Amino acid sequence: MQIDPGADILGLVDVQPTFMPGGELPVAGGDAIIPIINNLLTRFDHAFATQDWHPAGHASFASAHPNKQPYDTIGMPYGPQILWPDHAIAGTPNAAIHPSIDQHRIEAIIRKGFHAALDSYSAFFENDRKTPTGLEGWLRQRGFSRLFLCGLATDFCVAWSAEDAARLGFAVTIIEDACRGIGLPEPNGRTTIDTARERLVAMGVAFVNSQDF
Ligand code: VGL
Ligand code: ZN
After folding, report:
1. Which domains does the chain have, with CATH numbers?
2. Ligand 2 centre from 137 Cα, in Å?
């Protein structure tokens, strides 16, 4: 795959210790993507990153709701919300971009999920699908039209970011080996990783591997 330095940007989604083994919401193999992403960061001229960034007591935490457990789903004013263990607490070391990530090409960092009553998986919109993070404007003003996404988790924040980006008219590619997913069970023995991939492929999102560059 040829990278166009004027149009292409690598997006690092939630590459934070809170989503890695030893963190609060560990994604299996989440730390294995760090060297792959550092290698990708030597190929792209431009990168941005997101950070999941929640206040203590955030509405997406099961601990904020009486008699609820992590991975239960509840109804929120903006729709169904999966509840999570407390994670990505703003300002804590585990909410930082992983310290082993080479940040010298990261030109913008977008934090999301800081509204106490509203979750945000996507880098573009909070989970009401309306409240913008500002990333769209930044990308357009900088002239980027093709996004290459990596990070955590494939089936939540990466998938929702890819879906919004495609909907907004960006060409979107997910670098699959530079992502890891949570994989909650879905009907018929499938997982949220399978259903997210299917939905994204149908929307025209491309899937590649880091060796394709
Ligand atoms: C994420 C669940 C809750 C993610 C963030 O980064 O995919 N997942 N908050
Ligand atoms: Zn979160």
Report:
1. 8-56+85-212 (3.40.50.850)
2. 23
